[in-house]
Amino acid sequence: MPARTETYDTIQARIHAAAAPLGTAVRLLAVSKTQPAAAVRALAARGQRDFGENYVQEALAKQRELADPALCWHLIGPLQSNKCREAARHFDWLESLDRAKLVPLLARERPAELEPLQVLVQVNIDDEATKSGCAPDEAMALCGLVAAQPRLALRGLMAIPAPHADAALRVAAFRRMRVLYE
Predict the structure, then answer these.
(1) Percent of the chain scored above 90 by pLDDT?
(2) CA distances from 87 to 18, 57, 69, 124 (A)
(3) How far apart are CA 149 and CA 15, in angstroms?
(4) Whole-angstrom Cα distance, residue 146 to residue 169?
(5) CB neighbours of 68 closer than 8 A, spacing ≥ 6?
(6) Which of 74, 126, 158, 169 could staple 164 via S-S, CB 3.0–4.6 A?
(7) pTM higher than 0.85 for the full model?
């Protein structure tokens, strides 16, 4: 575990150094998928609060084991409609909303005593067959559906550009996302 602790400290230092000139706060999302609850607990003890999980069932097991209300759980993987109830009740963020049929399910299942579910609409910006996400021309309509639900809070867009060797192609994908966001 010491190597992970050193890596965590190095990453946090780099984040703070990069964000300081911008005068903005940046939070690290630690992707805890496939990691045991003990690893999540160790990072939480160092101050990490946001954890990303790909699979609802794996996250629920960790949440039960850790039972720490100070942790913020992000679902970062594709969501199946049969998992909407658990996602709406046990996550703080859904960073991978990719289709309209999930919106009413999530809104209906989000408990009134919880803050609205924070939602990012996932866009398949490079039209990759192996990636989830709505088409860029569908993003506005999907955002409108989310924004109309009081139990959901539209927070923005998310994309995973194609892993091009040419950095200019990756930058171009993020530029397209910026235009779409604006």
Answers:
(1) 84
(2) 32, 9, 16, 22
(3) 33
(4) 30
(5) 44
(6) 169
(7) yes
User: What would the two tokens of residue 59 be?
Assistant: 């996250």
How many C-beta neighbours within 10 Å does residue 6 have? 10
What pLDDT, in 10s, does the model give residues 154-175?
999 999 999 889 999 999 999 9
Q: What is the dihedral of CA 130, 134, 136, 137, to 10 degrees?
A: 130
Q: How far apart are CA 118 and CA 72, in angstroms?
A: 11
Query: Count of H helices and E strands in the chain?
Result: 7, 6
pLDDT of residue 129: 87
User: Residue 153: which of 139, 161, 143 has the closest Cα?
Assistant: 143
CB burial class (10 A; 0-12, 13-18, 19+) of residue 85?
A: middle
Instruction: Give me 6's structure tokens.
Output: 């050193």
Q: Burial of 82 by CB count in 10 Å (0-12 exposed, 13-18 middle, 19+ buried)?
A: exposed
Measured in residues, the chain has a length of 182
Task: Give the up-direction half-sphere exposure of residue 138: CA atoms within 13 A in the CB hemisphere.
Answer: 14
